[in-house]
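2024-03-11 09:14:02 INFO receiving multi-entity request
2024-03-11 09:14:02 INFO entity count = two
2024-03-11 09:14:03 INFO echoing inputs for audit
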Amino acid sequence: MTDVAALENVTHVYGRTRALDGVSIKLPAGKMIGLIGPDGVGKSTLLALVAGVRRIQSGSVTALGGDMADARHRAACAARIAYMPQGLGKNLYPTLSVFENLDFFGRLFGQGRAEREARIADLLASTGLDPFPDRPAGKLSGGMKQKLSLCCALIHDPDLLILDEPTTGVDPLSRRQFWDLIDRIRARRPGMSVAVATAYMEEAERFDWLAALNGGKVIGAGAPAELRALTGEKTLDAAFIALLPPEARVDHRAVVLPPLKEGEGFAIEAENLTCRFGDFTAVDHVNFRIRRGEIFGFLGSNGCGKSTTMKMLTGLLAPTEGEALLFGQKLDAGDTATRRRVGYMSQNFSLYSELTVRQNMVLHAQLFELPEPGASSRVKEMLERFDLEGVADQKPESLPLGMRQRLQLAVAVLHKPEVLILDEPTSGVDPVARDSFWRLLIGLSREDGVTIFISTHFMNEAERCDRISLMHAGKVLAVGAPAALVEARGKPDLEQTFISYLEGAADFAEPKELGFVAARASGEKIRRFDPARLWAYARRESMEILRDRLRLVFAFVGPLTLLLTFGYGISFDVENLAYAVYDQDNSLESRELLENFSGSRYFSQKPDITSASEIDRRLANGELKLALEIPAGFGRDLVSGKSPQAAVWIDGAMPFRADTIRSYVTGISQTWLAEQQRRRGLTVAASPINIETRFRYNQAFKSVYSIIPGVLMLILMLVPSMLTALGVVREKEVGSIANFRSTPVTRTEFLLGKQAPYVALSFVSFGVLLATAILLFGLPVRGSALALILGAALYIYATTSLGLLFSTFLRTQVAALFLTAIVSIIPAVNFSGLLVPVASLSESGRLAGLVFPCGWFQEISIGAFTKGLDFWRLAPNLAVLLAFGLVYQLCALAALRKQEV
Amino acid sequence: MLSGLRRIFRLSVKELRSLLADPVLLAVIFYVFTVAVVQVATGLKFEVESAQVAVVDEDRSDLSRRIVSALLPPLFKTADVITPAQIDPGMDSGRYVFVVEIPPKFESEALAGKRPSIQINVDATAMALAGNGAVYIQQIIAREAASFLARSDHAGAAPVDLVVRSKFNPNLNSMWFTAVMEVINNIAILSIILTGSALIREREHGTIEHLLVMPVTPLEIMLAKIFANGAVIVGASLLSLLFVVHWGLGIPIQGSVPLFVAGAILFMISVTALGLLLATFARTMPQFGLLALPVIITLYLLSGSTTPLETMPAWLQFVMKFTPNTHFVAFAQAVLYRGAGIELVWPQMLVMAALGVATLALCRKRFASVISAQD
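2024-03-11 09:21:47 INFO inference complete, emitting structure
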């Protein structure tokens, strides 16, 4: 087999953008293949199609000898392909340590413990990561993250390694180590094919075979030397430009830096600037001064404190020690006037992904209050200058990294700031666009006198700065003009100089060579369902939640608080109803009647009413729930047997309360009447019958006996579904979903693995709640305890499945959060028998309750606790709960796509 | 000041765009203010209405038949006549909340003055219904027995005519109550989730950092979120009140709608501010979800919109006084049901405004520390 992958007439469209336009290409096997071209030409899409993580729209893609449209082939070769997506450490789990990340991937590929440990030791040693196996991935520098990502991709000895812009945003030293590592691995595994997308021609020089892409088409392919020979150009850069169709050939000139006119004063001064996070010193007594109009470059390895320094200069972070001066004045974070003078671009994309490119720019123009006629033309000008007109009405999330960076730059300079603070603005931007960007920067500096403070990993960019500063581990190692630094260090170029400075200062571990673990026996069948992969996900999810202390606390404390609050708070024993009296009679008889009210614990008396209009007013403002009106002559009429009228006014705004008041009033008046009759010597006609009322299940008629089982039902509906609701959608937002797409893990394993820890967590929480109900509230389990416990387990299974279902088909966390809250609260509170027995719901209400698991569990909960029902009476409900769980789970499976659309 | 307002306006427009860009959110907002309101209003009854009763009639006499046929709508559904063996399964399964047992020879013993016993079995786990329903059944049985026996033995007229009238909702139709309260509960859920998650999203996506380097203050950012989300919510709830509750369900609105809107705006400000405050205690969306949920459900159940405040212990009533919901529920009941004017409800409006300002102040204080915190 000579081709590792082949594309035949492949077209891929995102909305109106054609990412790939009828591409046919064969990628040779066993080679280092580079895809080159500017941003947004379809490199990433092509790689994703070959890796099988993106669904083919039209055309055919074969890889490793099979059709990638065929799910069986994809499953079979998932273990032979490794895919590393774009973005720094995007497929890593930030709270997991270096070792745990690797261990997770090892498990996904079904490796045993011994094999995993040997491989991890080997990979860590050969990448120089071995001193930090316990450091959380989120705390690694960018270069280390990329190395770790690579290790994760290599753990299963892939036959095809696919790397999408792996060195974007990585410092030169780490970049060099990264490529050396790839070379060593290839030396040991010569059969392995590597496909890399890159925008950097200097990297492409060392590849075996290149495909140049532009505008969704392949414009040339072959070895670097062949491409150069074909076009007759000396450099690959020039060769690429020569391959472009004539109309796309941009006016490519070398960037020249005119000398700096000596400006007066300093724009930025840092004096002993220090920033500590806990016991970690990110920036350690940094000093520098930047003259007005100067371009000041900031170089350093990833994670050396560059970004933190920049944030302190923008006022985003307050320095722990020292001070930052802007135009000679101490930086005041609250001063909006200084912010107008500064343009800032952060390292991570920080514009609104839900707004279009143009809307983002207009919003910024508005917030900086650019005066109107100028503002629109300024936005237009920036769109043109940064070559964003074509995508002006698209949303940034659909754009490639390089274009997003350009957008951020355009936004940063939009309001014509006097100082620009740019944190790695050109990471991921293609060389042509970078050059045009630098021309713009130089223009700003030299013509408009804008001071530019820029951090970069590109040496050719550093050379264009007036002065640069080298930073490492929070300290500035050297400051000076680039040429002067090179001279002082006696190295041939700036890159060597930089590396020598770093190596002098650094604790960079030298990669070690270890014996490679024997490659997996080829032809081994991939199991269709592997509990080990399920366990890998379950284990990882558990570790994540166990480390997220806040979430863990909320998950336990929230339910317990609810149980206590509602256990004590909700009852139907209405007491202390505010009432007042309008007694126009004020006779012995009227006072006797009223004493029955004032003596009742149900009522609490308020100051007397003195006029008829007061009744209305005090009922209307909610002060009174009940007003008694006794007319003049009441006592006299009563004594003379004239059957006088007395009026009782009830606030009917809340029908339940009004109903209860009415029954209380009836009771009180009957007692009083009997008393009256006896007093007056009438023989009280005994009621002809004796009515016995038996309150079953709850003789004492205590609210807590019916409320607590209901609250349990409510909590176990809300919290477990909320726990899982963000599980999958969060991976989609963060990007780690890529691991699900590119590894052999199946949908079932993935979903069950993500669900299991939350089922366990919720079940433990149920145990705590149950113990509280029994011990604190003294609630006996009169019926089948087995049915209760089994019911709770099945109910939790159903509710976590429901959350997972929302999580799979929704695209944003906000939507998942929102939908889960609504869908769980409304039926659980209203239609499940928590407050109103299901028997007195209307048909529609009952139906609304039946289609959710909560009503079914309510019967189990109240049946087992209070009604004393045995297991078999509750068995049908158990079966229904199981069915709910299964249906939700199957729907979630159906909604989950292994490939990206 | 003016430019501050302008920036708030611009940011609000941005918030609205984000909200409108998510079809799922819009669909849920629509559902919540239309279908959900109707569902709850028509599905839920807190008063004794159409309760399912069963009667075990072992007497089969005129009196027992009178009692059976006196259990009538609207309070009760036509009673099912069942056998003694059906009592337990019927009550265990929650099919019957009340079962009346009439023993053999009930009528003849009653006529003979032997005071026979009649038993009402009440499912005491059906709290909202059990107490009041039992009282009604007792009254009905007593009345029927008395009037049946009166044919042979004249009973005197009652010495006092106690006229009980319900003001504001004369028939105690619970739909009037639940429909409006559901709208209010939904305002609270939406306000907390929408604004809180909007802030968390800005933090997770790093956009908040970008806002803060612009000439925009944290207060402006917060107010923009409050105004944008609040405008949608108040607008939707007003439409819901007028078209779904008033027009669709035919529920009268006694008071002034503009006054209600004014109160709703104050409420919305204080409850969205509460959402923002919760968001400052969480770092990620999953944390926020778990934190917001108990708060929402507590407001839902304990603010007087579902169960009466009078049922809660004094300490809890005191705690709930610090939530805007309790005051808004009181305000809305006064305005919408009792036609109260501003002269009666200004205290609630004042408290809501004060709670809103206090929450915002607290939020702003936490904001700075939260933003600079390193993950």
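2024-03-11 09:21:48 INFO post-check: Chain A has a mean pLDDT of 85.
2024-03-11 09:21:48 INFO post-check: Chain A has four domains: 3-247, 266-341+417-505, 531-566+699-895, 577-679.
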